[in-house]
Amino acid sequence: MRIGVWADKARLMEAAQGKRRCDLSIENIQLVNTITGEIYPAGVDVLDGIIVRVRDKGEDSPESLKIIDGEGRYLLPGLIDTHLHIESTMMIPSQFAQAVAPWGTTTIIADPHEIANIMGIDGVHFMLDDSKDTPVRQFFLAPSCVPASPAVESGGAQFGPNEISRLLDTPRILGLGELMNYRQICNQQPRMMDIIAEGAKRGAFLQGHAPKLVGADLAAYILAGPVSDHECRSTEECLEKVRLGMHVNLKASSLSNHLQASLNGVKNHRWKDNVSLCTDDVHAATIFESGHLNRVIRMAIEYGADPLDAYRFATYNAAREYGFSDLGAIAPGFVADLQLLDNLDGGCPYLVILEGKEVAREGRCLIQPANNERHFVNTIKLPPLSVSDFMLKVPEEDVETFTIHSKELGPFNGGCYEEIPVKDGYLYIEDDPDLAIMHVFNRYGKNNSAAAPIRNFGIIKGAVASTIAHDCHNLMTISRNPEDALIAVKALQQSGGGIAVAADGKLLAHLSLPVAGLMSDAPLGILVEEIRKTEKAVSELCSGSTLLKMATFALSALPGAILTDQGIIIDSAEEFTPLFRKKH
Questions:
Q1: In 8-48, which ranges are continuous DSSP H helix?
Q2: How many CA atoms within 13 Å lie on the side-chain side of 374?
Q3: DSSP characters for 408-429?
Q4: Closest residue by Cα to residue 34 from 84, 88, 76
Q5: Residue 529 neighbours by CB under 8 Å, 6+ apart
Q6: pLDDT in tens, 311-364
């Protein structure tokens, strides 16, 4: 796939030969060649957004409209993020581009399945429309699992083969987003196999998602069609997937970091062509303070990766993964997506160029977003709620209650049946500081809700409520006090969603995310301030918990114990685990 538009090949050829004036020449640089792994002095010439010549040091520069003196800095291709959810940044695509361009990201491939679970195809089209004409090139994938597990959860939309077909025929949609229903795929569940068939018949990219899948099931999953995976959580898992030909996207997100273990899985390989990097889920405050894909590069280098490998993962390898034949390197015919760096350490670039035009300099985006008037519909549709809705009623005496254990299985929740005291017909948790009550309410007008006690989440009092609950994004609460839970939920109902923290009868913090309950259109600085205030409140109330710790507790595609709006499931099963059972 070629990104650059060669309206007139003859013009480019003439510019390369010095017969035509170039638009841009960059002199006095150390060129990082992501094809060969060399670094050497050079000059680079650009016309119509395409690199036409790479000159050796000492060769005369051609006539150019603009000349940039690199002052000895390193010149590299722009970074390519191979998998992310823009919604997880809490910014709309236009604001997201403003935030990440200064960090050297020039191309991203996003899976908009978060907003698709809420608003369906209309949500995907919003992402496409808002991402036009931004300082970052934004591609998308058709969300393949909306919802992730229809048999055990209810969201705001459902995608089948017909919806997928419509999306795959839409410009800037490159293929199928992460095929996270790996168990259903391995079992050849008809809905998922039909969705995969829509992508396969178009020769589209099929993105995988298969945490902890190994052996025969992994082989079956690969045979079904997925070619990549961003869920390597151990050295052994990464090693097996690369050996079997999968392209692995190594990540460090706001939800998890298995980068070091994954790097260990490939460090002794002679060829690392099937390794790239991604951010997956990183919120705005992290981007603002630490960077975007360059942050993952920096961490990889700190974990022992060769800097040239780390940058190649995020440029040339990433481009090859998606079949971009003219991205990821600096050579004639490649698109002039470039960055000038003082050091090869994952730091902030001095200058970022997209298609031959400067888009960021010294950490500041040079392209201002369109000042569009926007109105966002409140997507929260809940029945009237009272304090008792945040308590857990026990149906009969002499029962044990299935209790979810936070992060008991490494990154995943475990669980078991426990005997928990009962008072006035409800579970009584006040004398057990490790216990809280978790609720998931369907927020799309379907009146479904489910609850379970949760142990070791760390909450000491009050409540946290959130509409960021991957992937159906129903409304979730974890509380020690039902009155505080109601206060937090009412705040989210009024604002259209986000995260709210309450304790002692007061609202302590409220991160307002009115765009589908996931994103804000506020300027980056204002959003970051709200994130940090809410993150501080969560950390103080929940013994150091991160802002998004509970975001995956309703993610039905994950291993371990999960609570959806319909009940408890274990290891992505399509049947529910009873909340109560008779004492043995």
A1: 9-16
A2: 17
A3: EETTEEEEEEE---EETTEE--
A4: 76
A5: none
A6: 999 999 999 999 999 999 999 999 999 999 999 999 999 999 999 999 999 999
